[in-house]
Amino acid sequence: MPARCRSCTSRRGSREIEHIGSAHDDAELETLKAIARQRLAAGQEELDLGLDAGPATGGPLEIASSRMGHLWEALSRAYAALGFDAATTGDEVFRQLVLARVIEPVSKHDSLRVLDEAGITSVSYATVKRRLPLYAEERWRTALAGACAAHAPAGTGLAGALRRLHPVFRD
Prior knowledge:
This protein is mainly α. The chain has two domains: about 35 residues, no CATH class; about 100 residues, no CATH class. Helix content is about 50%, strand content about 10%. The chain is built from eight helices and two strands; from the N terminus they run E-E-H-H-H-H-H-H-H-H. It has a two-stranded antiparallel sheet with strand order 1-2. The longest helix is centred in the first third of the chain and has 15 residues. The termini are far apart.
């Protein structure tokens, strides 16, 4: 049986192709595919939101449809679970900007296009521009930093740095 090659690709500005190996049978090919998936997912750890895992845990989810509304609902749930809804007192414009940029990292203006493609009715760009000064205020940034710190391990990384530098984050 001729050898079959398996390559792993990754896009970061330019295309990089890494040769994983050659397989001589189906078992070796599956092993190489598993190795390629691991390399592609390197550094892409799961964020534990403390949500119920559902009936099946671990492994990739089966794609049953391609409706973007499911993605929007999942991102909205994660946004709320991280405490951003409470930190922003339910500011819908900010939530839409954040989640649109999670879906596709684009400009503020292009975020409205992403929302439209997701089937979400968005505000006008003029409204987004009017809200920007609010988002730059210290109380706004402090509330968001507090929500982030609540999910960082105590004493290390972001949470530790915030607790050392700002009295709001001390226990």
